[in-house]
Amino acid sequence: MPEFVSMLILAVVQGLTEFLPVSSSGHLVLFQALLGTREGDVFFDVILHLGTLGSVLVVYRREAARLLRLDRPALGYLASLAVGTLPAVAVGLLAKDAIEAVFASPTFAAAGLLLTAAVLVSTRAARPAPAVPGRTDEPWEPRPVASWRALVIGCAQAVAILPGVSRAGSTIAASLWTGLERAEAARFSFLLSVPAILGALVLHLADGTGRASAVSPTELASLAAAAVAAFAVGLLAIRWTALAVVQAHFWKFSGYCLVVGVVVLLVLR
Question: Structural domain boundaries of the chain?
Answer without folding.
Answer: 3-267
